[in-house]
Amino acid sequence: MPRAGLTPAVVIETAARIADRDGWDQLTLAAVAEQLGVRVPSLYKHVESLDALRRGISVVSAGDLADALAEATVGVAGDEAVTRLCGAYRAYALAHPGRYAATQHPGSDNPGAARTLAVVDAVLAGYGLTGDEAVDAARALRSALHGFTTLESSGGFGIPRSIDRSFAGLVDGLVVMLSGWPRGR
Amino acid sequence: MPRAGLTPAVVIETAARIADRDGWDQLTLAAVAEQLGVRVPSLYKHVESLDALRRGISVVSAGDLADALAEATVGVAGDEAVTRLCGAYRAYALAHPGRYAATQHPGSDNPGAARTLAVVDAVLAGYGLTGDEAVDAARALRSALHGFTTLESSGGFGIPRSIDRSFAGLVDGLVVMLSGWPRGR
DNA sequence: CGACTCAGCTAATATCGTTAGCCATAGAGC
DNA sequence: GCTCTATGGCTAACGATATTAGCTGAGTCG
Question: One Pfam family for this entry, by name (chains A, B) (predicted)?
């Protein structure tokens, strides 16, 4: 039996690809093992369990998403930053639906999530939002983006109105919302 | 073997309660059967499969949600209607997380979803939004609510800022967004 | 060259969904 | 009240999956 040269990183990466292809909840150790040309129990030499594998994907993907958001907003501010942030967020979620779903199942400590929050905070600072107001606005922004992308990639938008145009509308609407964010409540 | 008096409706209702308690993806025929004091294969006399059972929950729950939204917005319009709509949406999602998750896995034709859309359309008409603009605004509204409630019930909001206050901020922000919805794009 | 580590294997178990076929009960018809 | 039938609930069985317990051979280090 020649060795397959597996490592935790290889297993996680393979699993992430499968999650992207088949869906987060279709991810199975059997599929990962087959993809790697290995028997299922062999995977346990590299990951503790299916749950641990999922957490691994979660951590890596949250980092990837944070990278994408940071890269998209470097050197810009205000409405332009919001627009690019939203675009990058949606692009990641659509290109990697399985990985994106993974980012929503956070482990207790996830450095990627913290970095994403930092990027968003920086963007919001451009609207003069800080402290509790920034927390609320960040949650609103995240909710809108998470909701839209989730609904889009699960086929939740039935009507044949262009989804791209609806997303552009959402982004413009979010700019309006942030510009006029209700103060002093 | 005394009869248990099952019907499709009873099975679906029981399953919905289990989904609310244990989570949508923890829903299992074994749990439903045990709850009903019956063996697993007996359920197949009333539902076609686990998938069909899930679809059943989905249809019923979408109807319940539509009812709640319609009831909350009857006789009001404008900002007040948006506020009540949002509140009822979140209340349903929090009180019935499993059922709510079910509403996001739509069957092909779901009368509840259509009724929900009608309620939202009526509310948006109060802001002069119709046609494509109403579609975009409805998607934005739905995205924000879906995102917020999903993140909330999955524990996605880490920071200890009050979630109630953040939701109030989101609702106010949505009112701002709808009032200033970008026209003529 | 020898011993040790460990990656991948087979075997086995538990849980689930699903199907096939049995049998007793509830209710219809007389 | 009696019979007959439709059917609800059952047991038995299979395939898929996750997980654990050992085995064995391949690299590696002295």
Answer: TetR_C_33
Angle of the B163-179 helix axis to the B78-95 helix axis, nearest 10: 140
Q: E-assigned strands of A23-176?
A: none
Amino acid sitting at position B64? D
| Residue count of chain B | 185
CB B107 within 8 A of CB B166: no
Residues of chain A contacting B106 with CB distance shorter than 8 Å: 155-156, 158
Give Cβ neighbours of residue A37 (< 8 Å, ≥ 6 apart): A4
* B59 and chain A in contact, CB less than 8 A: no
pLDDT in tens, B22-37: 999 999 999 999 999 9
Determine the distance between B64 (CA) and C27 (C1') in angstroms.
Answer: 34
Express each pLDDT in B113-124 by its tens digit.
999 999 999 999
Task: State if pTM tops 0.70.
Answer: yes
CA distance A118 to B132: 35
Nearest nt to the CA of A52 via C1' is: D18
Nearest to B95 by CA among B119, B133, B59, B65: B65
Rounded distance, CA A89 to CA A149, Å?
Answer: 8
The continuous run of DSSP H or E covering A101 comes out as helix A97-103
